Sequence to fold (370 residues):
Amino acid sequence: MIPMDPKTISKNIDRTLKTAKLFDVFWERWLVHGVDHDDVSNARLHMDSAKEWKNTWERLAEEKMNTGKGHETRLDYPAAETAYKQASLYYYLNYWLDPMHSPEKAGWYKKCQQAMKQADSISNIPTIYKEIVLPDHSICSGRIRLPDDPVGVIISVNPIDSSKEELYQYEMDFAEKGFITLSFDGPGQGDTFLSNGVIGTRQNWAYFIDRLIDYAEETYGEFPLYLFGTSMAASWVLYGSSNRKVSKAVAVSPAVEIDRMNIPAYFLQRMKCSCVYDMKSEEETERLFPRFDTIQYHSPLLVFHGNKDTMISDGEMHRLFNRISSEKYLIEFEDQGHVCNHKLEEIRQISMAWFSGELKMKEELTYERE
Fold:
C-alpha cells in the first residue's frame, strides 16, 4: 500500500464533493456507464459531506436492488440484470469516493461485487471468475463473459481509476455481439488492489498486460484476439499491440507522458493512493505509463480522439499517433472531450465491426465517418 496523510485525503474528498456538486461534466463518466439522470439530480442535493454522499448512493443502490428483485419475480430477467448492475455501480460510487485502502472501502466494494454477481446469476451469457498470477507472484482478479458461438476475444483494459465492475456496459456490448470478453482488475484497481495489495507501476502493468494476453491465447487461442481500452488503459493497449498474438487493437484517448497532459489536481492526488505515476523522483521501472518510444508496434491500431479533450491536446495526440509504426487509423470527434464519453457506444460498435472485418477503413491514417 502507499501511505497517505489523512488530512490530504480528506481535502481531496472535499474537493471531489465540491466538483461533483457544481460541475455537470463530472457526471459524464458515470452517466455513460449506467447511472440514471434522475438519480444524479437527486444525489447532487446531498453532497455536503462524504457521509451524505454514501448514504444517498446506498439508498439509491438498495432501490435498484429491490427493483431488480421485482423484475426477477416477474421473470423479466433482462430488466432484473440491468437493475442489479446499476445497483452494483451505485455501491461502486461509494467505493470510489475515498481513494485510500480501508476496511470501509473494502466493504463497499464487497456490496458492489455481490450486486454484480446477482446480475451474473440470471444473465443469459455465462460469467466465470478467474485470477492470473504475474511473474512477481502478484494476483490479478477478473471476470470473463462467454457467449454462445463466439467470433473472437476482446480484452477490455480498464482505466486506472476504474475497476472491472464499473465498465459493465462495455462487456455487455462485446459479449452480445459474440465476443468472449475478459475484464480484469489491473495493478491498483478493484480486487487486485484491495484484496491482493498490488499497486500500479510501469513494471506491474507490463507484467499484467503480457500475462493477460498469454492467458487469453492459451485458453481461447482458436479465436482472434483484440484489445480495447480508454485513457490510461489505452496507453497500455498501445503497449499490448506490440504482441504478435494480438490481431487488432483500439485505443480511445490514450494518455501520453504525464508532463504533457493537463490532469486535474484532485485526480493526481487520487492516483497517488494506488499507483506510482511518472515523477522524476521515481525509479524508471516504477513509473505508471509505458515507455512510448520503445514500443515495437505490430498489430493494426484504431485510435479515437475528441478535439475538445482538455487533458490531451490535438497536437499531443497527433504527435503520439505519428509515432505508431504499424497499420493505423485515426477517428476524431470535433465535439467530444477526453474519452469521447457521448460517443462511447458508437465507438464500441465501430470497433467491433472493424475487429470482425465488417468495417473496412477507407485509407490508412484517417477514416472519414459517414
Summary: Residues 1-124 form a domain with the de novo design (two linked rop proteins) fold (CATH 1.20.1440). The mean pLDDT is 91. The chain has two domains: 1-124, 126-370.
